[in-house]
Amino acid sequence: MKSITVYCGASRGNIDDYLEAARAMGRLMAERGIQLIYGGGSIGLMGAIADSVLENGGQAIGVIPRFLDEHELGHRHLTELIVVETMHERKQRMIDLADGFIAMPGGFGTLEELGEVLAWSQLGLHSEACGVLNVNGYYDGLLACADRMHEDGLLRHEDRARLLDAPEPEALLAKMEAWNPPAELKWEHLKKELL
Predict the structure, then answer these.
(1) Is residue 91 within a helix (H) or strand (E), and if so which, with residue range?
(2) Which of 36, 100, 147, 166 is the most exposed place for a label (fewest CB within 10 A)?
């Protein structure tokens, strides 16, 4: 993986471990020569991971919609800051630039972005690894929900396997590097399963 899109909060939250995890992930990505692709913000966990990547000699590319940049939320010291017009453009550009996707602690925006890349993976629109950095069990509920979807027959086994998780940055990157995407989706087989 040469570049990873990281989705995370524009807030730092009130748990210090989230901030430390963002810094650790940024440091590890820089050490491994993995370029950070992220939402372009200078604040919260977004700002922390970008700062950590840059402080450790790595590259950080931010993608931010103009309306947020105009509120002076864009990070001014990145390797590159790409300003786009809409949130949809932002998400598309972040997907296009990435070789993998990680969700760290965040809010609704982080969940929405993770859900989109997982759904696109399920539909065969990309084949990159998707994972959550499950700091202090932050994503336990989401993982349990995905398990329930599978148990109740609403999510195929190979699609549940698309969501990787680990509590530490190094363990998550190892899982992502070892991940092999499921075989290409065969629509005729899928239709038979759904009927």
Answers:
(1) helix 87-96
(2) 147
Overall number of domains in the chain? 1
Q: What pLDDT does residue 183 have? A: 75
Nearest alpha carbon to residue 17 among 143, 165, 133: 133
Neighbours of 126 (CB within 10 A): 17
CA distance 63 to 142: 26
Burial class (CB in 10 A: 0-12, 13-18, 19+), 6: buried
* Cut 0.90: pTM above it: yes
Token pair, residue 156, equals: 């195929």
Structural domain for 37, as ranges: 3-194
H or E element in which residue 192 lies: helix 187-194
Paired strand residues for 102: 6, 131
CA–CA distance, 160 with 175 (Å, rounded to integer): 15
Please name every residue paired with 7 in a beta bridge, in sequence order, or none if there are none: 103
pLDDT tens figures, 97-148 = 999 999 999 999 999 999 999 999 999 899 999 999 999 999 999 999 999 9
